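Protein folding task:
====================
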Amino acid sequence: MNLTDKTLERMKTLTELHGAPGFEDLVRDYLRKEFEALGAEIISDGLGGIFAVKKSKNEDAPVTMIAAHMDEVGFMVTDIQDNGLIKFIPLGGWSTDVLLSQKMKLRTKENKEITGVIGSVPVHFRRGDNKTTEIKDMLFDVGADSKEEVLEMGIELGDSIVPDVKFEIMENSKKLLAKAWDNRYGCLIALEVLEELKDTELDCHLYVGANVQEEVGLRGAKVSSNLIKPDVAFVVDCSPANDMMGKKNDTGQLGKGTLIRIMDRTMILRKNMRDFLLETANKHKVNYQYYTSPGGTDAGSIHVSNDGVPSAVVGICSRYIHTSHSIINYEDYLNAKTLLIELVKDVDSKKVEELRG
Protein backbone atom coordinates (compact mmCIF):
# COMPACT_ATOMS: atom_id res chain seq x y z
CA MET A 1 0.00 0.00 0.00
CA ASN A 2 1.33 3.41 -0.96
CA LEU A 3 0.08 6.97 -0.76
CA THR A 4 -0.66 8.90 -3.94
CA ASP A 5 1.13 12.15 -4.72
CA LYS A 6 -2.24 13.87 -4.34
CA THR A 7 -2.63 12.57 -0.79
CA LEU A 8 0.93 13.55 0.12
CA GLU A 9 0.32 17.06 -1.20
CA ARG A 10 -2.87 17.30 0.86
CA MET A 11 -0.96 16.12 3.93
CA LYS A 12 1.65 18.80 3.42
CA THR A 13 -0.92 21.55 2.91
CA LEU A 14 -3.17 20.58 5.81
CA THR A 15 -0.46 20.03 8.41
CA GLU A 16 1.33 23.27 7.56
CA LEU A 17 -1.80 25.44 7.80
CA HIS A 18 -2.11 27.71 10.83
CA GLY A 19 -5.18 26.72 12.84
CA ALA A 20 -5.22 27.12 16.61
CA PRO A 21 -8.55 26.71 18.47
CA GLY A 22 -10.80 29.61 17.53
CA PHE A 23 -8.59 30.43 14.53
CA GLU A 24 -9.50 27.58 12.17
CA ASP A 25 -10.49 29.72 9.17
CA LEU A 26 -7.54 28.79 6.91
CA VAL A 27 -8.26 25.09 7.39
CA ARG A 28 -11.97 25.68 6.86
CA ASP A 29 -11.26 27.61 3.64
CA TYR A 30 -9.15 24.74 2.35
CA LEU A 31 -11.82 22.15 3.12
CA ARG A 32 -14.52 24.31 1.56
CA LYS A 33 -12.49 24.57 -1.64
CA GLU A 34 -11.92 20.80 -1.74
CA PHE A 35 -15.57 20.00 -0.99
CA GLU A 36 -16.72 22.40 -3.70
CA ALA A 37 -14.35 20.71 -6.17
CA LEU A 38 -16.24 17.47 -5.48
CA GLY A 39 -19.53 19.22 -6.23
CA ALA A 40 -20.83 18.71 -2.71
CA GLU A 41 -23.53 20.70 -0.97
CA ILE A 42 -21.94 22.43 2.04
CA ILE A 43 -23.39 23.43 5.39
CA SER A 44 -21.77 25.20 8.32
CA ASP A 45 -22.63 25.91 11.93
CA GLY A 46 -22.46 29.14 13.89
CA LEU A 47 -19.07 28.36 15.48
CA GLY A 48 -17.35 27.60 12.18
CA GLY A 49 -17.72 23.86 11.65
CA ILE A 50 -18.06 22.83 8.01
CA PHE A 51 -19.65 19.73 6.48
CA ALA A 52 -20.21 18.40 2.97
CA VAL A 53 -23.51 16.64 2.34
CA LYS A 54 -24.09 13.54 0.20
CA LYS A 55 -27.77 12.63 0.14
CA SER A 56 -29.14 9.13 -0.36
CA LYS A 57 -31.84 8.53 -2.96
CA ASN A 58 -33.93 7.21 -0.09
CA GLU A 59 -35.38 10.29 1.61
CA ASP A 60 -36.02 8.33 4.83
CA ALA A 61 -32.44 7.06 5.05
CA PRO A 62 -30.62 7.51 8.36
CA VAL A 63 -27.99 10.22 8.80
CA THR A 64 -24.33 9.29 9.13
CA MET A 65 -21.85 11.88 10.37
CA ILE A 66 -18.07 11.77 9.85
CA ALA A 67 -16.47 14.41 12.07
CA ALA A 68 -12.87 15.56 12.29
CA HIS A 69 -11.64 18.69 14.06
CA MET A 70 -9.71 21.48 12.37
CA ASP A 71 -7.90 22.99 15.33
CA GLU A 72 -4.41 22.17 16.57
CA VAL A 73 -2.97 22.99 19.98
CA GLY A 74 -1.48 26.48 19.99
CA PHE A 75 -1.23 29.72 21.97
CA MET A 76 -2.78 33.17 22.25
CA VAL A 77 -0.96 36.48 22.78
CA THR A 78 -1.96 38.05 26.11
CA ASP A 79 0.60 40.80 26.72
CA ILE A 80 3.39 42.70 24.96
CA GLN A 81 6.18 43.82 27.27
CA ASP A 82 8.06 47.10 26.95
CA ASN A 83 11.19 45.21 25.82
CA GLY A 84 9.34 43.64 22.86
CA LEU A 85 8.91 40.16 24.33
CA ILE A 86 5.44 38.63 24.25
CA LYS A 87 3.42 36.78 26.90
CA PHE A 88 1.03 34.01 25.87
CA ILE A 89 -1.37 31.38 27.18
CA PRO A 90 -1.96 27.85 25.84
CA LEU A 91 -4.91 26.92 23.66
CA GLY A 92 -5.16 23.20 24.34
CA GLY A 93 -2.92 20.87 26.29
CA TRP A 94 0.84 21.46 26.29
CA SER A 95 3.65 20.03 28.41
CA THR A 96 6.16 22.62 29.56
CA ASP A 97 9.13 20.43 28.63
CA VAL A 98 8.45 20.56 24.88
CA LEU A 99 8.32 24.35 24.47
CA LEU A 100 11.54 26.18 25.26
CA SER A 101 13.57 27.23 22.19
CA GLN A 102 10.84 26.05 19.80
CA LYS A 103 10.33 28.02 16.60
CA MET A 104 6.76 29.26 16.16
CA LYS A 105 4.65 31.39 13.82
CA LEU A 106 2.42 34.18 15.09
CA ARG A 107 -0.51 35.02 12.81
CA THR A 108 -1.80 38.60 12.73
CA LYS A 109 -5.31 39.75 11.84
CA GLU A 110 -3.94 40.72 8.41
CA ASN A 111 -2.97 37.04 7.95
CA LYS A 112 0.73 37.82 8.15
CA GLU A 113 2.77 35.04 9.77
CA ILE A 114 5.66 36.28 11.89
CA THR A 115 8.48 33.97 12.97
CA GLY A 116 9.47 33.84 16.60
CA VAL A 117 10.94 31.53 19.22
CA ILE A 118 9.93 30.68 22.76
CA GLY A 119 12.82 31.99 24.81
CA SER A 120 15.03 29.90 27.07
CA VAL A 121 17.82 30.73 29.50
CA PRO A 122 21.24 29.56 28.20
CA VAL A 123 23.01 27.02 30.37
CA HIS A 124 25.81 29.59 30.90
CA PHE A 125 23.48 31.81 32.95
CA ARG A 126 21.82 29.11 35.02
CA ARG A 127 22.65 28.79 38.70
CA GLY A 128 21.59 26.21 41.24
CA ASP A 129 18.54 24.04 40.62
CA ASN A 130 17.24 23.98 37.07
CA LYS A 131 13.56 24.35 37.89
CA THR A 132 10.95 23.77 35.22
CA THR A 133 9.81 26.99 33.56
CA GLU A 134 6.03 27.26 33.65
CA ILE A 135 4.17 28.42 30.56
CA LYS A 136 2.95 31.53 32.38
CA ASP A 137 6.58 32.58 32.76
CA MET A 138 7.64 31.91 29.17
CA LEU A 139 8.18 34.66 26.60
CA PHE A 140 7.83 34.69 22.82
CA ASP A 141 10.59 36.50 20.94
CA VAL A 142 9.88 37.88 17.44
CA GLY A 143 13.14 39.83 17.33
CA ALA A 144 11.64 43.16 18.39
CA ASP A 145 13.40 45.59 20.74
CA SER A 146 10.33 47.40 22.03
CA LYS A 147 6.56 47.20 22.44
CA GLU A 148 6.22 49.84 19.73
CA GLU A 149 8.15 47.69 17.27
CA VAL A 150 5.92 44.71 18.01
CA LEU A 151 2.81 46.80 17.40
CA GLU A 152 4.28 48.14 14.15
CA MET A 153 4.57 44.51 12.99
CA GLY A 154 0.78 44.30 13.26
CA ILE A 155 0.79 42.07 16.33
CA GLU A 156 -2.12 42.52 18.74
CA LEU A 157 -3.41 40.88 21.90
CA GLY A 158 -5.53 37.87 20.98
CA ASP A 159 -3.39 36.82 18.00
CA SER A 160 -2.64 33.09 17.70
CA ILE A 161 0.64 31.18 17.67
CA VAL A 162 1.38 27.64 16.41
CA PRO A 163 4.59 25.67 15.73
CA ASP A 164 6.55 26.45 12.58
CA VAL A 165 7.19 22.99 11.09
CA LYS A 166 7.36 21.74 7.49
CA PHE A 167 5.87 18.40 6.44
CA GLU A 168 8.57 15.83 5.76
CA ILE A 169 8.83 12.24 4.50
CA MET A 170 11.38 10.55 6.76
CA GLU A 171 14.21 8.23 5.73
CA ASN A 172 11.89 5.31 6.48
CA SER A 173 9.35 6.54 3.94
CA LYS A 174 6.42 4.98 5.80
CA LYS A 175 6.97 7.58 8.52
CA LEU A 176 5.70 11.13 8.02
CA LEU A 177 6.82 14.03 10.19
CA ALA A 178 4.70 17.16 10.67
CA LYS A 179 2.98 19.35 13.20
CA ALA A 180 -0.75 19.04 13.78
CA TRP A 181 -1.38 15.41 12.83
CA ASP A 182 -3.86 15.91 15.66
CA ASN A 183 -6.05 16.49 13.85
CA ARG A 184 -5.27 17.26 10.23
CA TYR A 185 -5.26 13.48 9.90
CA GLY A 186 -9.00 13.63 10.48
CA CYS A 187 -9.53 16.47 8.01
CA LEU A 188 -7.65 14.50 5.37
CA ILE A 189 -9.45 11.19 5.86
CA ALA A 190 -12.84 12.92 5.93
CA LEU A 191 -12.07 14.60 2.60
CA GLU A 192 -10.70 11.46 0.96
CA VAL A 193 -13.55 9.23 2.14
CA LEU A 194 -16.04 11.68 0.65
CA GLU A 195 -14.03 11.66 -2.57
CA GLU A 196 -13.94 7.86 -2.61
CA LEU A 197 -17.71 7.59 -2.08
CA LYS A 198 -18.62 10.41 -4.46
CA ASP A 199 -20.25 8.11 -7.03
CA THR A 200 -21.41 5.38 -4.65
CA GLU A 201 -25.09 5.06 -3.86
CA LEU A 202 -25.47 4.91 -0.09
CA ASP A 203 -28.35 3.84 2.15
CA CYS A 204 -27.66 6.80 4.44
CA HIS A 205 -27.42 10.56 4.14
CA LEU A 206 -23.73 11.30 4.65
CA TYR A 207 -22.39 14.44 6.36
CA VAL A 208 -18.61 14.71 6.19
CA GLY A 209 -16.60 17.52 7.73
CA ALA A 210 -14.77 19.04 10.65
CA ASN A 211 -15.50 20.85 13.89
CA VAL A 212 -13.78 23.74 15.64
CA GLN A 213 -12.36 24.06 19.16
CA GLU A 214 -12.01 20.38 19.99
CA GLU A 215 -8.75 20.97 21.84
CA VAL A 216 -10.40 23.31 24.35
CA GLY A 217 -13.34 21.15 25.40
CA LEU A 218 -15.04 19.43 22.44
CA ARG A 219 -16.98 22.64 21.86
CA GLY A 220 -17.64 22.61 18.12
CA ALA A 221 -19.00 19.06 18.16
CA LYS A 222 -21.80 20.11 20.50
CA VAL A 223 -23.00 22.57 17.88
CA SER A 224 -22.56 20.49 14.73
CA SER A 225 -24.23 17.39 16.18
CA ASN A 226 -27.25 19.46 17.18
CA LEU A 227 -27.36 20.89 13.66
CA ILE A 228 -26.95 17.60 11.75
CA LYS A 229 -28.78 15.32 14.18
CA PRO A 230 -26.93 12.15 13.16
CA ASP A 231 -28.26 8.64 13.68
CA VAL A 232 -24.70 7.29 13.78
CA ALA A 233 -21.36 9.09 14.02
CA PHE A 234 -17.77 8.25 13.19
CA VAL A 235 -15.22 10.61 14.68
CA VAL A 236 -11.81 10.69 13.00
CA ASP A 237 -9.03 11.76 15.33
CA CYS A 238 -5.34 11.21 16.01
CA SER A 239 -4.28 9.76 19.36
CA PRO A 240 -0.96 9.56 21.23
CA ALA A 241 1.21 6.56 20.43
CA ASN A 242 2.66 4.71 23.39
CA ASP A 243 5.38 2.63 21.74
CA MET A 244 8.60 4.48 22.51
CA MET A 245 9.78 2.00 25.17
CA GLY A 246 9.35 -1.01 22.89
CA LYS A 247 6.88 -2.83 25.15
CA LYS A 248 4.69 -5.14 23.10
CA ASN A 249 1.65 -4.75 25.36
CA ASP A 250 1.49 -0.96 25.26
CA THR A 251 -1.51 0.38 23.34
CA GLY A 252 -1.03 2.66 20.36
CA GLN A 253 1.83 1.41 18.21
CA LEU A 254 2.84 2.92 14.87
CA GLY A 255 2.33 0.55 11.97
CA LYS A 256 -0.07 -1.77 13.79
CA GLY A 257 -3.18 -0.41 12.08
CA THR A 258 -6.20 1.73 12.85
CA LEU A 259 -7.38 2.06 16.45
CA ILE A 260 -10.41 0.34 17.95
CA ARG A 261 -10.85 2.88 20.75
CA ILE A 262 -12.78 0.97 23.39
CA MET A 263 -12.71 3.63 26.11
CA ASP A 264 -11.48 7.10 26.97
CA ARG A 265 -12.44 9.72 29.57
CA THR A 266 -15.34 11.00 27.41
CA MET A 267 -16.90 7.83 25.94
CA ILE A 268 -17.17 4.06 26.31
CA LEU A 269 -17.52 2.22 23.01
CA ARG A 270 -20.83 0.36 23.14
CA LYS A 271 -20.74 -3.37 22.48
CA ASN A 272 -22.93 -3.15 19.36
CA MET A 273 -20.67 -0.53 17.81
CA ARG A 274 -17.52 -2.42 18.81
CA ASP A 275 -18.83 -5.55 17.11
CA PHE A 276 -19.68 -3.54 13.98
CA LEU A 277 -16.14 -2.18 13.80
CA LEU A 278 -14.52 -5.57 14.38
CA GLU A 279 -16.73 -7.45 11.91
CA THR A 280 -16.08 -4.83 9.22
CA ALA A 281 -12.33 -4.74 9.85
CA ASN A 282 -12.01 -8.52 9.76
CA LYS A 283 -14.17 -8.85 6.65
CA HIS A 284 -12.04 -6.36 4.72
CA LYS A 285 -8.68 -7.46 6.16
CA VAL A 286 -8.03 -4.14 7.87
CA ASN A 287 -5.17 -4.09 10.37
CA TYR A 288 -6.35 -2.78 13.74
CA GLN A 289 -5.32 -2.52 17.37
CA TYR A 290 -7.30 -1.98 20.56
CA TYR A 291 -6.81 1.36 22.23
CA THR A 292 -7.69 3.13 25.48
CA SER A 293 -6.92 6.75 26.23
CA PRO A 294 -6.87 9.17 29.17
CA GLY A 295 -7.91 11.88 26.70
CA GLY A 296 -11.10 12.37 24.71
CA THR A 297 -12.47 13.15 21.26
CA ASP A 298 -15.46 14.89 19.71
CA ALA A 299 -17.30 11.57 20.06
CA GLY A 300 -17.56 12.49 23.74
CA SER A 301 -19.89 15.35 22.85
CA ILE A 302 -21.63 13.77 19.86
CA HIS A 303 -22.69 10.51 21.52
CA VAL A 304 -24.65 12.35 24.23
CA SER A 305 -26.22 14.91 21.88
CA ASN A 306 -29.91 14.98 20.94
CA ASP A 307 -31.41 11.68 22.17
CA GLY A 308 -28.09 9.81 22.07
CA VAL A 309 -25.99 8.87 19.03
CA PRO A 310 -24.20 5.52 18.48
CA SER A 311 -20.63 6.70 17.94
CA ALA A 312 -17.13 5.37 17.35
CA VAL A 313 -13.68 6.80 16.77
CA VAL A 314 -11.85 5.67 13.62
CA GLY A 315 -8.39 6.88 14.44
CA ILE A 316 -4.68 6.36 14.14
CA CYS A 317 -1.89 7.01 16.60
CA SER A 318 0.98 9.45 16.30
CA ARG A 319 4.14 9.85 18.31
CA TYR A 320 4.57 13.16 20.14
CA ILE A 321 1.16 14.77 19.55
CA HIS A 322 0.63 18.11 21.32
CA THR A 323 4.24 19.04 20.54
CA SER A 324 5.86 20.80 17.59
CA HIS A 325 6.78 17.58 15.77
CA SER A 326 4.71 14.41 15.45
CA ILE A 327 5.14 11.21 13.43
CA ILE A 328 2.62 8.83 11.85
CA ASN A 329 2.93 5.67 9.78
CA TYR A 330 1.02 6.11 6.53
CA GLU A 331 -0.05 2.45 6.47
CA ASP A 332 -2.15 3.18 9.57
CA TYR A 333 -3.83 5.98 7.62
CA LEU A 334 -4.65 3.67 4.73
CA ASN A 335 -6.10 1.03 7.06
CA ALA A 336 -8.25 3.63 8.79
CA LYS A 337 -9.47 4.94 5.44
CA THR A 338 -10.49 1.47 4.24
CA LEU A 339 -12.32 0.77 7.49
CA LEU A 340 -14.22 4.06 7.43
CA ILE A 341 -15.32 3.62 3.81
CA GLU A 342 -16.65 0.14 4.46
CA LEU A 343 -18.43 1.18 7.65
CA VAL A 344 -20.28 3.97 5.85
CA LYS A 345 -21.27 1.63 3.03
CA ASP A 346 -22.92 -0.70 5.53
CA VAL A 347 -25.02 1.91 7.35
CA ASP A 348 -28.74 1.66 6.65
CA SER A 349 -31.90 1.80 8.75
CA LYS A 350 -31.51 -1.79 9.89
CA LYS A 351 -27.91 -1.23 10.96
CA VAL A 352 -28.85 1.88 12.94
CA GLU A 353 -31.56 -0.11 14.69
CA GLU A 354 -28.96 -2.74 15.64
CA LEU A 355 -26.53 -0.09 16.89
CA ARG A 356 -29.19 1.57 19.03
CA GLY A 357 -30.38 -1.74 20.47
